[in-house]
C-alpha cells in the first residue's frame, strides 16, 4: 500500500516521512497528503485545547497540516486518509492513507508530559489496560515499577508488554495488578520518573447497565409518601442516565426525582460506581397506583426495570 503523506523539508524539499520521526521540540512540522478531500487525525492533546499552533487546510490537490512551536506534549501519531464522498456522506479510502509517529524531544523531558500528577487506570478483566507513559526519545529504556512494596514489574511480553506508542499494556488485567505504579526512563546517562498511576481493579462486566429497582413499599395508603429507587452498579468511569415512566405522568402529577452517584470500594480494592435515581410521590392517590418503570442508559445500551405500587 502506497503512502500519500509527504513531509515538507526546508528549502521546499519533500520527503516521505519514516514510520517514526524524531524531531526537536520547537520545530515546525508541515505534512501534506495528496487528494482533494483529506481527513486527518493527530494527538488528542492538540484537540483538547483547540490549539492555535495547529492548522489543517484543504487545498485543491492536497491537504496540509502545520504545527508550529511544537512541544514534547505533541508526541504521537499523525495520520491522513483520502475520503470517498457521495454527497455529504464520506468514507475512508483504505487504499490511500499515510501516517507517521512523531517524537518531539525536549531538553529535560524524557516522558510525554501528563496533565496531572496522578492518574487512575482501571483494570477490566475483559480488556487490555494501558499505563500511558510514553517517551519522547526513541532510544530511551523504559521500566515499570511498583511503589509499594518497591520493585520493578517485568514487562515479559506475555502478561505485560511495552509499546512505545501506548505505554505499558496489561494484556489480561487481574486483581493482583492493583496498586500504585510509575515508569522510569533512561537515555543518554539521564533518568527520569513519570507521574504515578493508581491501578484499580473493576469487577463489574462492561455492557448495558446492571439495574435493580425497589419501592419503599408496594402497597401504599392514601395520603402516604412512597419512593422508588433505581440502582446501577457499574464501571467507575461509565456515566449512567436515568429516565422514569410513572402512572401519574399523563396527569402531570408533581413528583421529585433525584439522581446521584458515588464510588464504592468493595473488599480487595474492587472499585464500583453506584448510580441511583429516586422518584418520590407525596400524598399517594389512586392515580399514582400502577407501574413505575426505570430505564438506565450508558454508552453500551440500556436496561429497563419495573415495579408495581398498589393502593391499599
From TrEMBL:
Q: How does it assemble?
A: Forms a complex composed of PDGFRL, TNK2 and GRB2.
Q: Which InterPro entries match?
A: Ig-like_dom, Ig-like_dom_sf, Ig-like_fold, Ig_sub, PDGFRL
Q: Where is the Ig-like domain?
A: 209-312
Coiled-coil stretches noted in the UniProt entry, renumbered to this chain? none
The answer on whether this UniProt entry bears the keyword Glycoprotein reads yes
- What is the designated name of this protein? Platelet-derived growth factor receptor-like protein
Originating organism: Carlito syrichta
Q: Name one GO molecular function term.
A: platelet-derived growth factor receptor activity
Q: Where in the cell is it found?
A: Secreted
Sorted UniProt keywords: Disulfide bond, Glycoprotein, Immunoglobulin domain, Repeat, Secreted, Signal
**Chief subcellular location:** secreted
Gene for this protein? PDGFRL
One GO cellular component term noted in the UniProt record for this chain: extracellular region
Top-level taxonomy: Eukaryota, Metazoa, Chordata, Craniata, Vertebrata
Amino acid at each position: 500500500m502506497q503512502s500519500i503523506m509527504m513531509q515538507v523539508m526546508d528549502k521546499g524539499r519533500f520527503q516521505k516521512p519514516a514510520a517514526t520521526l524524531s524531531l526537536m521540540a520547537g520545530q515546525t512540522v508541515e505534512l501534506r497528503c495528496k487528494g482533494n478531500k483529506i481527513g486527518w487525525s493527530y494527538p488528542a492533546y492538540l484537540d483538547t485545547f483547540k490549539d492555535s499552533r495547529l492548522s489543517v487546510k484543504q487545498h485543491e490537490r492536497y491537504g496540509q497540516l502545520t504545527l508550529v512551536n511544537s512541544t514534547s506534549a505533541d508526541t504521537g501519531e499523525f495520520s491522513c486518509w483520502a475520503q470517498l464522498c457521495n454527497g455529504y456522506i464520506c468514507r475512508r479510502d483504505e487504499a490511500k492513507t499515510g501516517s507517521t509517529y512523531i517524537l518531539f524531544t525536549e531538553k529535560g523531558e524524557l516522558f510525554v508530559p501528563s496533565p496531572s500528577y496522578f492518574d487512575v487506570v482501571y483494570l477490566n478483566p475483559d480488556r487490555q489496560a494501558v499505563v500511558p507513559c510514553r517517551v519522547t526519545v526513541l532510544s530511551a529504556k523504559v521500566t515499570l515499577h511498583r511503589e509499594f512494596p518497591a520493585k520493578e514489574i517485568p514487562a515479559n511480553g506475555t502478561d505485560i508488554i511495552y509499546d512505545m506508542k501506548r505505554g505499558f499494556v496489561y494484556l489480561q488485567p487481574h486483581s493482583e495488578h492493583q496498586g500504585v505504579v510509575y515508569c522510569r526512563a533512561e537515555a543518554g546517562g539521564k533518568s527520569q520518573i513519570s507521574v504515578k498511576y493508581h491501578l484499580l481493579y473493576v469487577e463489574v462486566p462492561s455492557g448495558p447497565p446492571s439495574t435493580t429497582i425497589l419501592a419503599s413499599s408496594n402497597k401504599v395508603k392514601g395520603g402516604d409518601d412512597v419512593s422508588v429507587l433505581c440502582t446501577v452498579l457499574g464501571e467507575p468511569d461509565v456515566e449512567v442516565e436515568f429516565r422514569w415512566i410513572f402512572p401519574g405522568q399523563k396527569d402531570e402529577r408533581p413528583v421529585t426525582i433525584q439522581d446521584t452517584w458515588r464510588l464504592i470500594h468493595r473488599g480487595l480494592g474492587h472499585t464500583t460506581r453506584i448510580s441511583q435515581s429516586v422518584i418520590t410521590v407525596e400524598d399517594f392517590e389512586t392515580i399514582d397506583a400502577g407501574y413505575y418503570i426505570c430505564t438506565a442508559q450508558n454508552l453500551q445500551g440500556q436496561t429497563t426495570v419495573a415495579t408495581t405500587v398498589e393502593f391499599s
